[in-house]
Structures are given as structure tokens and as C-alpha cells.
Amino acid sequence: MSPKLPGKASLRTALTAVVNPMPFYKVNQRLYPDIFSSSLLWFSAYVIHNPFFMKHVLQENHKNYEKGGKYGFIRFLLGNGLLTNNGDDWLKHRRIIQPSFHQKSMGYAWEVMLMETQTLIKSFGDRMVIDLNTEMAILTVNIVGKSFFGMDTQDRVRKLRQELENCQKHGHSLLRMPINYPEWILDIPIFKKLDKALKNVHATIDSFIEERNANMGIKNDLLELLMELKYEDTNEKMSFKQIRDEVLTLIVAGHETTTLALAWTFFELSKNKHVQDACRDELTSIVRDAQDLTYEKLNKLTYLTCVIHESLRMYPPAYLFARTAINEDYLGDYYVPAGKNVVINLYGLHRHPEFWSNPHEFMPERFEKFDYSGINKFKFMPFGAGPRGCLGVHFAMTEMKIILCSFLLKYRIELADQSPIYPKPLFTLNPNKHICIRLKNLA
Length: 443
Ligand code: HEM
Fold this sequence. Notes:
With 443 residues, this protein is of the alpha+beta class. It has helices spanning 11-19, 21-31, 51-60, 72-78, 87-97, 107-124, 132-149, 154-175, 192-214, 222-228, 240-271, 273-284, 295-299, 302-314, 346-350, 393-410; strands spanning 7-8, 35-40, 43-48, 65-66, 129-131, 320-325, 329-331, 334-336, 341-345, 411-415, 423-425, 429-431, 436-441. It has a six-stranded mixed β-sheet with strand order 1-2-3-9-6-4. A three-stranded antiparallel β-sheet has the order 5-13-10. A two-stranded antiparallel sheet has the order 7-8. α6 (107-124) runs parallel beside α16 (393-410), α7 packs across α8 (154-175) and α7 (132-149) runs antiparallel to α11 (240-271). The N and C termini lie far apart (73 Å). Residues 82-83, 94, 144, 249-250, 253-254, 257-258, 261, 317-318, 321, 382-384, 388, 390-392, 395-396 line the site of protoporphyrin IX containing FE.
């Protein structure tokens, strides 16, 4: 008997995905709720929505699924840091970096989160309308840069953020072409602006590393750890390029997603006044002001956690990710040939009508009774799952709670502009335009 193969998306729908992947995934998910196959030019993939298939790829047989061609543009931009690396080299580096993200190592990060948020709020002065995408990006890049790499030069960090945005802007056309790009592509005139932005990003990161090289032993942070360590197997130091790749990866992964998660959460809080009020009621019953926040108190904010989870369900910043099968395999009865790409459509999974009632409605209460164990871990996974799940999940959740609490304790918030806002996927799940909110002093 010949192996079972998934239903195939039409070429017409596949072509539309180059411009906007959302309608493509929506139409085909409706036709093929568990899995479908899609081919366009040299890229061919299975797109999955079935949690058991997710579990198989991300956990049970994860060693057979590496980060392949789909990561072409990200690898091109970020080099070979934790997000894009594979195999033993990835594991070696994950083991080195992971302890810096344990709760007991996060005391300094906690202080940075509180302090940077208060500094931002003070900087608003009488300005009552703020652009969340811009303000949250600067805030979160400052937090991650300062917490792990001692980047406390505001101007340079701002410039870094600007150049990273330029990379997205000028590299946009390469984004959906799932190939590994050769370095010479930057010599093509239309990519000159991308080349310049990328060189500026590298130069800024390099300047931080070089400065630290001249001042070792002052800060006991992740940058110092990377610069000092010697690999157990070779007794050699980490190369300059590898340090840069790891730093750049953590800066990008550590602020781009959190910025969007915050912008979308503020957006829903502004639209749903009763949810905003319920969050504030919970908050004021537990803390007096932002300085009164502790880990224990933050953990008691269960409704706020539901609000963040509901926002991450509806607008998962990393809305798609992928793997490539090393050897042939099966997903249920479906045959997966070696080399096949498997796309995890997180946006589709999080709005799958079989798993979520009223999937397009913002209903934080649904998480009050949600069982996060067993197969449900693969129905709701904004931070990915399995050994390659997000390294920064606790960091991000703590950071988002501190920022949301600081705003909710001081302001009532509403949308400053009533024109429609909807997801517009780029590298991450952006809104179609920047989200602006109006702040109203509470007292
Ligand atoms: C709301 C915020 C965030 C979201 C939604 C998010 C989401 C994700 C997802 C879905 C993955 C898995 C990708 C895959 O399997 O291909 C991932 C991986 C990763 N994330 Fe996050 N992330 C967030 C915040 C952060 C932060 C704050 C950091 C670090 C400061 C971070 C660092 C990383 C790293 C290093 C990886 C790669 C892990 C590995 O492969 O070993 N993320 N993230």
C-alpha cells in the first residue's frame, strides 16, 4: 500500500502566501484541519495544526527535526546563535546560556525592568498619547540589553533598535523566500540599504563587546560569561563571531516578540474596558504601587496572567515556525520524506475552532480553567514547546507583568485612534499600523 499523503493546497492559494500568508493558511486549514501540503518553486512543506503532530515534531522525535531552510533569512540576519543553531553545537550553547535565565539569577533583571519602566513613564511628562510599538520597543531593548550585556548607553541602544528595524524594512522582500542566502546577495544594489543596516548592527554589538574586553571583571553578567568561558571539550574560548551571534540573537529574540505581545495586550485592554477594570481591581487588591511589586505578589495576579495568555493566543508574535525532517518519518499515518519542511502554524492552531470556542473573541476567562498539562501544551504554545522552546519565557512574562502593572496603576488607557487595527504578518505578527493609546491619569 502506498503511504498516505496530506491534501495539497492549490498553487493559486500558495502564490498569495508570498504577499500575505494569513488568507492562505486560513483557507487551507478550513479544508484540511490537521495537515496539508504546499509547494511553491523549490520550497515544499507540510503545514500542521494537529497538537499530536506538534508534540511529535517538537518533543517526541525532536532530534529528527532541525531548523532548516525556513530559517534562511533569520540566520542571515542573526548568524548562528541559539535561535538558528542545530545539533550538538546548539545544545552546548543552550547549556551555557540557560542558567542566566533561571529565576535565582534574575534579581538584577527585575530591578532593571522596574527602573526602566518608571523612567519611561516619567519621560512622558504631559504627553498623553503614546505610540506603543515605538515606546515598547525602546523599553524592551533597553531591558534586555542592560540585564544581560550591561548595555547602558541609551543612545547606542536606540540606534541599534533603529538599525534592526531598518533590517526588517529593507530585508522584507527576502523574508518569505525560504532559502539560505549567500553573503554576496548584499552586494546587489537593491539590498544596499539592508547591507548598511546590518553592518551598523554588527558594529554596535561589536563596540559593546570590545569595550567590555577592556573592562573585564566589573560586571558579572552573561556577556562576561560568554567572553570568559572555555568549552569543556576543546578548552578553547568562544570566537568573537559566536559571541556576537549569541548577543544579537538574544537582543532580537528578547525584545521584538515582547514588544508586540505588549502592544497587542494594551490594544485589547483599551478596547475591553471591563477587562481593564478587572485587571486593575485585582492589582490594587494586592499592591500599593509599582515599587511594592515582588515575585510573590506578581504570581498572585492570576487574572492578569489570563489576559496576557489570551493576548498571546490571539496574536502569537512568533506566529509561524518550522523544522526540516532529517530522516523520513510519520505524522500519524502521513508519510514525511527526509528533507521535508514542517511548518507550525501557531496562529491557526490558536484560533482552531475545534480547540477554542469563539476563537476570534478576546475572552481572558477561558484561561481561568485551562488545563496547561498533557496534550494541551501543544494547543496553546506561544513560546514554542519541547527542548527548543523559548529560553526567555519567564523573563518575558515577568517583564510584561511589570510593565502592564506599572501602567495600569497610573493610567486608564484607551485607543487614541479608532481606525481598524488587525494583524499584518512580517517576520513577527505586527499590527497593520502602530498602536497608539491615550493615557488618562487615575488620581
Ligand atoms: C512574548 C515574548 C516571547 C515570545 C512570544 C517568544 C516566542 C518564542 C518561540 C515561539 C520560540 C520557539 C521558536 C522555534 O521553536 O522555532 C522562541 C525561542 C527562543 N526565544 Fe523566545 N519568545 C519571547 C521572548 C523571549 C525573550 C525575552 C528572550 C530572551 C531574552 C527569548 C529568547 C529566545 C531564544 C534564545 C529562543 C531559541 C531557543 C532555542 O532554540 O534554544 N524569547 N521564542
